[in-house]
Amino acid sequence: MGIQGMELCAVAVVILLFIAVLKQFGILEPISVEDGGDAELELSAVRHQPEGLEQLLARTKFTKKELQSLYRGFKNECPSGLVDEETFKLIYSQFFPQGDASTYAHFLFDAFDADRNGALCFQDFVVGLSVLLRGTVQQKLKWAFNLYDINKDGYITKEEMLQIMKSIYDMMGRCTHPTLRDSAPAEHVELFFQKMDRNGDGVVTFEEFLETCQKDEDIMSSMQIFENVI
Are 35 and 169 in contact (CB under 8 A)? Predict the structure, then answer.
């Protein structure tokens, strides 16, 4: 993949990899007829109790049946109700044996860890999944912006974007063709800012990010790919 083809690939990568992680957990299973029963979420089955069903129905765009199915999968794979960062990194490493996915997985883990407690619980997963699969374009792009905004100050700097891009190249390893130069991440960052930094002040705001992405047909298409995954 050439440098131009990667100008905003991380937006799609976020969705692709998150879906892959959930499938690895066995969470994205087909919803069967049995899932339509009246049983509530089995909160007593896990040590870390998630929010109740009604609260999650209000916070997400999933139905009761979908939440029950997702919870069964999560509970089976994560009996404690929590996923720590090292486990998250281990899962990602299985998808990218030719590269080093640890840094990108760290950034992605932080984006899902809304309460910054160092662990992902069921509501972290399901709220993030709802945004990525059922959210509006603006909600999905806000989530991606938050991923790139490493220190969460409301701006993407060149230093932050360089860290993100280096982590993506490290994760992809040698699967890019032709082989990329060592300077490729920095070159990508410059292209990113040429597109995104519309007022030339050296940082990218969410408004600039949103406006640019909404004018990019490829980005808009990637936002719709997984809407019917479950």
Answer: no
- pLDDT at residue number 194: 92
Decide if pLDDT at 106 tops 90: yes
Q: Which residues contact 56 (CB under 8 A, 6 or more apart)?
A: 41, 50, 62, 67, 123, 126, 127
pLDDT digits (tens, 9 = 90+) for 132-167: 888 888 998 998 899 899 999 999 999 999 999 898
Taking Cα atoms as reference points, which of 163, 122, 156, 121 lies closest to residue 142?
156
Which two tokens mark 204?
């990218």
Rounded CA-CA distance 156/137 in Å is 19
Question: What pLDDT digit, counting tens, does each position of 8-26 carry?
Answer: 444 445 555 555 555 555 5
Please measure the distance between the N-terminal and C-terminal CA atoms of the chain and give it in whole angstroms.
30
Alpha-carbon distance values, 228 to 19, 56, 171 (Å): 12, 19, 27
